Structures are given as structure tokens and as C-alpha cells.
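Q&A log
Question type: sequence-to-structure
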Amino acid sequence: MPLSTAAVSPNLDQFAQSAEKWVTPRSRSWRWSPTWPVWGFSCARTVGSWPSRSLLPRLATPFRESNVIKFYRLWVSAASSNFGDGLLRVLLPLLALAWGASGFEVSVVVASSYLPWLFGSLLIGVFVDRLNRSTIIRAANAIRVLATFALLAVTVADLASIPLLVALALVYGVAEVATDLSSQSAVSQVVENEQLESAYGRISVSQVVANTLVGPAVAGLLFGRTQAAVIGLICACYVVAGLSVPATPDSDQDSQKPWAPRQIWRELRIGVSAVTSHSWLRRAALSVGVMNFASGANAALLVTYAVSPGPLRLTTG
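Response status: OK
Response body:
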């Protein structure tokens, strides 16, 4: 039975509780509700469906941002960030070739963007446990915006420099690790426990699709027309990712963790021991490592093989 237009309750919270009783399982309808002047249209969502049991109680308090909206903002931030990362996966090796890099130098540029995942993910995870997740995401995206402006300036001024490209790849890689780890950790702060599985799935799918499918394809199409367009789009992605991320609460347990180097080193050893001592985690880590190694090798070799003077002799123009 769809939600009826009942009288407005003086207390919005009480009205939300009474409105929820009218929402029955499997009911979906859009209706004009004069009792909701702030929102205009009210949506009766399926009880028990993701991302919340009912969207109505949360929409009934318009001045308090709901967890539903927070998750969608986090989702947009993660997808936009990974779309920019996917653009970089193709842009960096193509720029290196355009600047006259050899096959080895292209491999060094590509490897530089993957090294932070190999050597810095555990250390960055320690900082993610101690700091506010949304602050980390905003700071990482701000750093990437500045790095993208530097890359744009170098490209427009025609100041080709492979060492600079390697340094920027390292910066992008560190920021990517910090952003992705923080996004995954922030999910549990904006979603109820019974909805975590679905929320993590949506975040992971959007990251994979944007990073490995859509981003590289768009970068390849735009690079042949103008390099500045790809760089500008990357900058826009990171701006959107930084602005759309919601505020996340500070965890009392995490904020009380000590910053002593001995304690940080102890947590790093515990993390390594947890992975190496658990058979399933050990196999999963090895499998993911092999896949990432193959992905990085493919990113470096495919560009040098396809683009002139490679065997296929394709052009970027």
C-alpha cells in the first residue's frame, strides 16, 4: 500500500516514524506529497532494500544529512577518483613515449605508479587508522590536483622530462593508495552493518570499472586529439572526488592510538604476520600480486608495442 498524504506532524521525527508504518514490502511509487514542502516528491522505497530499510524517515529530517546521502557521495568520490586513475594509466606511458622515452624508461614510469601499493600500503594503512578518512581523501585529491597542474604546465610549455614524470607517477601512486584505502575504510562509518556487503560491492565494482575499463579507453581516445584535454579531465575528476566526499566521524578508538615509531612498527609487523600466517590471506595476496604484476607489465609493454616506432606503428594523432 503506497504512502498516503497524512497530516503533517509537528515533530518531523514523529512524522517519519508514523510514515514508515505505511511503507509495505515491495512497494515502489512516486507521489506528490503536499506534506513534504521541502522535498516536493516522496519516494516509498522497498523495506529491507539497500541502502536503507526506508528512505522516508531520513528524508523527513531535511537539515540532517542521512547515511544514504553520505554513501552516495562517497560512492561518487570513489568512482570519480578511480576514473582519474584510469585516465592516468594510459596517459603516463603515452606521454613518456611522446617525450622520446625508451621502452625501459616507459616501464620505469609505469612501475613508479605501482610501487606505493607494494611498499607503502601497510604504512599508509596505519595512518588511515589514526586520521579522519574524509580528511585523508580530500588532502590526497588536493595533492593530485596540484600534481596535475604541474603536469599540464610542463606539457603546455613542452618541457619534456622523464625524471619529472617518474616523480609525478610516485606522487599519484601514493595518493591513490591513501584515497582507495580511506574510501574502503569510510564505508563502515556511513553504512549499517547489515548493508556493508552490498556497499563494499558497489564501491569495488565502480573502482574496477572506472580504473581498468572506462578510464583507459577515454584517455586513449582523447590523447590522439589533445594531451591537454586528458590532463584537464583528470584534474576535474580529482576535484569532484575531493568535493563530493562526505564528512566522516572520528573514531575514538583510532584517535587514541599512539604515534610512537615503535608502536607504528609493531602494527606493521602485526599486519605482515596476519597475512603471512593465514593460508587464505597468503594465497589471496600472492594471487593479487601476480595479477597486478601482469597488469603493470601489460600497461608498459602494450604502449611500446602498439605506438610507433613499435611493431604496430600506431600513431597518437
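Response note: The domain at 67-306 is CATH 1.20.1250.20 (Growth Hormone; Chain: A;).
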